[in-house]
Amino acid sequence: MKRALLLCCSCLLVLAVEAQKAERKLYSLAFYNLENLFDTHHDPGKNDTEFLPDGSYRWTAERYESKLKNMARVLADLSRDQVAEGPALIGVAEVENRRVLDDLTRQPGIDHLRYIHYEGPDKRGIDCALLYDPQQFEVKRSKLVLSQPYQGDTVHLTRGFLIVEGRLAGERCCVIVNHWPSRGATSDVRVHAAQQVKALKDSLMHRHRKLKLIIMGDLNDDPMDESLQALGTCKYPHEVKKGTLYNPWWETLEDKGIGTLSYRGKWNLFDQIILSRPLLKSRRGLRYDHHEVFRRDYLLEQEGKYKGTPFRTFGGRKWLNGYSDHLPTIVYLKRN
């Protein structure tokens, strides 16, 4: 009898420990603008001549291989100090084509990753893609929704909205990866992009009101700007109501002064990961835990005029052999 009781207690203890492990389980989602990840070949119909061996950037095979290694180093490091497996999902911007994604995902340290990509209409040939770990995320369906021009402006088009649906930690999740028009366009153009994403969000959540939806990308606007208000984002979790979204980066930039890119001595935070209400309010399953701008010394200039700012690939036309003009962002989800 005593032996049976001890065995029963041991089993209960094991179950309790496993339950605690499950409760503590973290998943991470990231976004990173790779800053002009071009190969060395010309794609017909695309304005990619700057990034050719005889182009203005002298984009040789040696420089391309170095860029791939640098990008792989960052992607392999993301969230590893908190999540041993690394990110389940990584949205990326400024990738030229499938060729560069094939070359990238063959790099040591990230060769477990797969990707979703569609060739978009961008004149320079740069697109968004979603890298994912198939051990953590199961892809169910995906598509690229092309952006509609703002008042006939076909110059400042967004790169299309990449929608990927799948299962993360056994739950239905959906990701929309974005790269909105640059600051060369007026604010109205990005507001128009935001309104299109909001329509996509409303449609997805109308079909599944408890959908755990993640909107990520280089939005070329800060969290407090007009376009993000048009998307319906809130600064603090307690402000999030039905139909609105939580933008944790608003507080990060406005209250803490932390950004992802620097321009003329001022930090901006264009690289955002925005969450639907069920990722805040659900009592069971995946729920928002915390977030960070991924800052490591090797990603930052260590001396000179630009000390402390992102260590980019080029300074003007001078090859610096850096990483990107943007820093990555990460959101951590806890499984309850």
Topology (elements, then pairings):
Layout: H1 2-24, E1 26-37, H2 61-77, E2 89-95, H3 98-104, E3 114-116, E4 127-132, E5 137-145, E6 161-168, E7 171-179, H4 187-207, E8 212-218, H5 226-231, E9 233-234, E10 245-246, H6 249-254, E11 261-263, E12 266-268, E13 271-276, H7 278-281, E14 286-293, E15 314-315, E16 318-319, E17 329-335
Parallel strand pairs: 1-2, 7-8, 9-10
Antiparallel strand pairs: 1-17, 2-4, 3-4, 5-6, 6-7, 8-13, 10-13, 11-12, 14-17, 15-16
Top CATH class: Alpha Beta
The run of helices and strands is HEHEHEEEEEHEHEEHEEEHEEEE
Give the beta-strand count.
17
Distance between the termini: 36 Å
The neighbouring-strand order within the major sheet is: 5-6-7-8-13-10-9
Helix content: 25-40%
Strand proportion, as a percent range, falls in: 25-35%
The structure class reads: alpha+beta
In terms of per-residue confidence, which ranges show pLDDT below 50 for 5 or more consecutive residues?
Answer: 13-22
Overall shape: globular
Tally of individual helices:
7
Summarize the structure.
25% of the residues lie in helices and 29% in strands. The chain has 336 residues and is of the alpha+beta class. The strands form 4 sheets. A 7-stranded mixed beta sheet has the order 5-6-7-8-13-10-9.
